[in-house]
Structures are given as structure tokens and as C-alpha cells.
Design a protein that fits this description.
- The structure is a single chain.
- The chain folds into three domains: 121 residues, no CATH class; 140 residues, Sandwich (Jelly Rolls), CATH 2.60.120.1440; 72 residues, Phage tail protein beta-alpha-beta fold (3-Layer(bab) Sandwich).
- The chain has 360 residues and is an alpha+beta fold.
- A hairpin with a 5-residue loop joins strand 2 and strand 3.
- The chain is 33% helix and 27% strand.
- The N terminus is likely disordered.
- Strands 1, 2, 3, 4, 5, 6, 7, 8, 9, 10, 11, 12 and 13 form a 13-stranded mixed sheet that branches.
- It has ten helices and 18 strands.
Amino acid sequence: MTDLHRAAPSPSDLDAEALEWFVRLNRGRGAEQNAEFQAWLAGHAGRQAAFARWQADWQRLDGLPAAGVQQLRRQLAADQAKADRTRAAPASATRRAWLQGWSALVPQAAVAAAVLLTAGGGSYLAWDHWQQQPVFVQNFSTERGQQLDVQLPDGSRLRLDTATRVEVALYRQRREVRLPEGQALFQVQGDATRPFDVLAGAVKVTVVGTRFSVRHTANVPGDDGVRVAVEEGRVRVATVPAAGQCAHPGAAVVTLAAGQQVAADAAGHMAPVGPVAAAGAAPWRDGRITLDDVPLAQALAEFERYGPTGLVVRDAAVGALRMTGTFDPRRLDNFRQALPKVLPVRLQGEAPHTEILAAH
């Protein structure tokens, strides 16, 4: 046990002594121990405040799972008992050893340990850290040609298109979905206390309750940015800094209403807000690909997201020809038949090795 009569202890020593007394008193208080405790309190003006901090921090653990708190209590008592037996290390060393071993505890107890091992304002930071831990985490993905409907615990629904991956994390105070690749339609359950964020590329979409689609196809040439289209409600779209960079005051922020959409390039630079195309915010949910004046090479890359096309373009001038139309990616034969009718091209070779050539 720390020397109770040491003169002018430092704040860290006071904190370590208070922790020792806190543990001892939690193991049981006899008359002799109570007298020693009162003598310790009277020995320095700062001891009462140090002990009160430990009591306040422990009370903060009421909201944590009981099993985790009990495990923490046992670990703390065991470490202190070991120090009492050896008498070989000062309380601060025992405390450091406990800190080093806390990662073996269950996650909730580890956070509880963080609360107890910090003093003053640090306790708030640790408690806030616990509050920020997700209550639901799961990843969802689709293969080429596959779509998937997902219902989240908060009541929100997601429709994933082909070759799409999302990472969902629901927190106590917010909801977050990352879209590394693909496109999805979001129907968000309204909850003013928990905003819903979608992070895609260099863009963050924030809503409370609405229906909108987000596309992020980094591997599609000419369409490697992010596109957001709103069917119902309103969404806020903002550029976000790349990893390791700070946000700047000039970052673009737009608010979209129903029937509006915006596109951003891979760096987050946004085009002007425009109307949602006549085909809707997410024509792919009905099994359609809508091409709006896009290069043929990009159109082929879009079809490839749904499955192999067997079509190749080697002539850059042919790949640059632009086309418009709506097609069913499951009926590639219709697309093949339409190509020579809408573009000055011809097909050479049989599937699955067909080259698209200039008509002349």
C-alpha cells in the first residue's frame, strides 16, 4: 500500500492512492480499514477530491453491460491484490500494468477501463468513445448480374444493384453506410436524432428520412465519380477530404430536392444540379440500363458490370461514338441488334468474341 504519510503527493500520486483505496473499500470495509481510510483522507487536502473522481467515474458505468462491469471489477481487484502481496511495485506501476492488460477484456469492459484509467476531463472522452461505438455492423455485396434487398435494424431499406458493396454501421447517434463500389437505392427511415450518412468516393450524402440513389463506379472509364439522385425528400451532398487531408472552407455543398440529381468527379468537384432523367433515379431496379449520350466504350463497361458481353472495341474512334437508349442488361442480343441501327458500326465475329468496327 502507498505510504499514507508521504508529504505533498503529486496529482498523479493522489490519483493512484485514491484508486488503491477505491478497490480496497469495494472488497469490504472493516472498522480498522475505515479508520485507516479516514486517516488517509485527512492527510492531504486533495485526497477527498481524488477519491470522489473515482466514485463518479465508476457510477458512469451504470449504462454498460453488467457482465463487462463485473469482469472489470474482478480484474481491478485481482491486480490490486497482487500488488498488495508483492509490495514490490508502486501503485502507479500497478496501474500501468492494468492498463497494459485491459485489451484482454471484452470490448465494453475495455471501454469501462478507459473511463476508470483517466481522470478529470479525460473521463468524458472515454465515455464519449463508448457512446460512439456501433450497435450494428455488417457488410453486404452482390455479384455480377445479381441484385439484393436489405432491411436494416432501424427500418431503412437498401436495394443493391449488380457488383455493389456496402459497409453499414449504425451508431447510437448516427447511421453510416459506405459505398466503395456499385450503386444502391436508399429508403431511409426518418429519425431526427440519428442522421443517415452515405460515404461514396469524395462525397458524403446526409439525410434524415428520404429515398434516393447513389452511384459510385470507380472502375468504369468515364463514369468513375459519384452520382446522387433523389426521389423523395431532401438530401445534403458535400465533398469530403481525401484520407490524410483537412476539409477546406471552399468545399462544395448542395441540397437536392425530389426530382433533382448531381454528379461529382473522382476528386469531388460537382457539376451543376440538374433534373433526374426521365428513366428515374434508379432504372436498374427494374432491370434497365439507361444510356444518355455516353461513349460506346463506357456503355460496354456498364454492360460488363452485369455480365460478360463478348463485345470488344479496339478502335478508339469507334469507342468514342456516343449513344443514347434504354436496354435490358439481361437481353444482350437486343443491344447487339440495336448497335448497327443507332451507330455507324458493324459487328465482326461470333459471340463471345465479337469486335465492333466502323461501318466503312
